[in-house]
Amino acid sequence: MSDRVLEKQFADLAHQSETAELGMWGFIATEVLFLGGLFVAYSFYRYLHPAGVAAAASHTRLVIGSVNTAVLLTSSFLMSWASLAASNGEGRRAARLIWGAAGLGLVFLALKGLEYAEEIGERLWPGAAFSLDTPEPRVGEVFYFLYWVMTGIHALHLLIGVAALAAIGWRAHGGVYSRAYHSPVRVVSLYWHFVDIVWIFLFALIYLPGRSA
Amino acid sequence: MTVTTVAELPHERGGSYLTDGTTLASWLLTRDHKRIAILYTLTITAFFFIGGAAAAVIRLNLLTPEGTLVDAETYNRIFTLHGVVMVWLFLVPSIPTTFGNFLIPLMLGAKDLAFPRLNLLSWYLFVASGLIVLAGLIGGSVDTGWTFYEPLSSGYASGALVVVLLGIFVNGFSSILTGLNFVVSIHRLRAPGLTWYRLPIFCWSNYATAVIMMLATPVLAVTLMLVAVEHLWGVGVFDPTHGGDPLLFQHMFWFYSHPAVYIMILPGMGVISEIVPAFARKRLFGYHFVAWSSVAIAVVGFLVWGHHMFVAGESVYAALVFSFLSFIVAVPSAIKVFNWLATLHKGAISFEAPMLYALGFILLFTIGGLTGLFVATLAFDVHATATYFVVAHFHYIMVGGMVSAYFAALHFWWPKATGRLYPESWARFAAILIFFGFNLTFFPQFILGYLGMPRRYHAYPPEFQVWNVLSSAGASVLAAAYLLPLFYLGWSLWRGARAPANPWGATGLEWQTPSPPPSGNFARTPRISRPPYDYPEPAA
Amino acid sequence: MARPPRRIVLSWLGLLALLAGNVAVAYAGAGSLAPFAHVVIAAAMAAVVLVVFMELGRGASLFWVFAGAGFFWLAVLFVLTAGDYLTRVNFAATGAG
Lengths: 213, 540, 97
What we know:
Order of helices and strands of chain A: HHHHHHH
Low-confidence stretches of chain A: none
Strand content of chain A: under 5%
Largest interface: A-C, 51 and 49 residues
Largest sheet of chain B: none
Strand content of chain B: under 5%
Radius of gyration of chain B: 23 Å
CATH topology of chain A: Four Helix Bundle (Hemerythrin (Met), subunit A)
Order of helices and strands of chain B: HHHHHHHHHHHHHHHH
Number of helices of chain B: 16
Low-confidence stretches of chain B: 1-13
Oligomer: heterotrimer
Radius of gyration of chain A: 20 Å
CATH superfamily of chain A: Cytochrome c oxidase, subunit III, four-helix bundle
Structural class of chain A: mainly alpha
């Protein structure tokens, strides 16, 4: 089986696995700058309009946001365990844990969907129909512009992650991975943890302002 | 550098990467980095001529002060198309995706890049991006210039802008994946004995380029995405009517776009570092300095973006810092030029076409680079910004420098990639014609800028006409000169003499393979034990 | 591996505690210090994920370089842009406009 997966430019499977992992770290570095760019734009807008942003941010749903954060942290915990199990050759256990993590990812997306539906109902979608009862509604509209873009991009990354988890979960279940070859599990779990880190910062900066007043 | 053995793979005896599979599918589904390089070469050539056609319209329009060849709106669309196509569809990919893809695995002693399928995906994303961008530029009215400044771009430009921004976003993805492939490959696929300090400078330069591609492009992608969404929703974070700051767009845009010019020039510098030793028959002078100067350019190049915004409204203290850093970034480039000159000194120089282009590069890049110091100077830039001085400055580097380097590479490695020799006399004639046409086109523009002619204007005061006419005359010579290689290089594919493995007697692993190389590059992994540029010292 | 290793369980619980802490800080009335506190706590959580879940310390040192490069260059974008915003002099509009 290892002969089928070893590509000709690599000396051996260990070389290939380590290179794949390096590739994922490189990709994560690019994502730090991509998503980080959103945080930079948000930070400077908030610097210019601290009160307006805080007032608008207090309208985000803290309960759903906090529960979702806990959900993602737990899914990362499961993925970390899954990666260790896979490196130990425990394909079936790894598969269950991976699917658990993916399931929690779906829970996140479901809660996010409920949240989005509520917010659309309250006319927090930017545009002519936007309505927010704060002293600086125009600033609030830009806050919500960033809210939808940042959480939307994050949700898209999460969805891709869920699909990737489902795929490697299926392969782990089928016994494709072993002690010698399990780098896809490792590589996908790195991506999953990174998406979790992005949410950690998102939650801190989008959901928490303006709560104490 | 000595290599243990590089036999042809038995089943490929008499065959090469060009003949291994002749169906369309074998090309469009290839994982071979050499074939992907060929695919890219064809694609960027097409884009180059599209961007060049726009330049022709610009120069024709500017023959008369009234500029009535096209109306103002159309003129704006034309220079937007010229900039977008030349920057993202030609200059950024140019050397990395063609010669980088072809040569880096060979120079590393590897059978391919680290991620061959990702490489093919990069090409498909690139082609898609080009089609999307052109659809937007030609099908709609995008007149913002390639810089898409706010609030014009989100508030007042046409909806086709979103299409163009989507295209550039996809283009960015292609760039990022290529960069990732190069960085990981150079770290992990070097043959035994091939330490960093034995790598050809071409690898160092492309490594530095790839790092910039990876770190800068994502910021461009997210910034343009914000503009597109702002255009669609009518509100956004750069929108002054909602408390946003248009200058924030410029910060984020130039954070990419300044390093982007180093993406464009660094690979060219790498090419020159290969060609000068080969045609001076002398070891590259100051190898370590040249190697680390590539890294220094990449690093410091990230710190200077505010020099595009001196008069846009950024704080004067920030402008001072960016100006100072912009002076610093010139130093590693100068180091390279000094080392090339020192390599030439007392070398046994011959003037084949690659060397002619390389010598042209050294002169034209130096002029362009020195004028960069002019515009980095705050007091001068206040007058010269947004004039033809800046236009001449960056064209000296991008066209005089980068396109010369691209043609240098094209001629130097043509025998290796195609297995054919090109006609040397025609090539020398084209090189000299390009040099002449280039200077006639762009030197008058320094004068125009100094005299105060603004850029991106379709019309101008009558006293500027003589310089504009000279510039347009030069452009017609340049256009003819650029077409020449198309003909004689194309001719060589059918009638050129067969090339030996090493027609130039150059050092480097790529010259140890047959011309053209077999699909698997090396039958056995080479072992490296000698320094690079191991040319014998010329007779005193 | 029927039971997860202790370090990842403790990390998970620690992350949940930090989450609760971050929410508590939001209600504690820290004023203009609040954004910094939130970012610091979030950074601590991110560090736990990086070092424990992503095993950043255990792989090749090149992984550190790659991971660090992303954050470092983001910091460059942030700091130099901040250098502009923090040193701008705003001139009050005069009546003449």
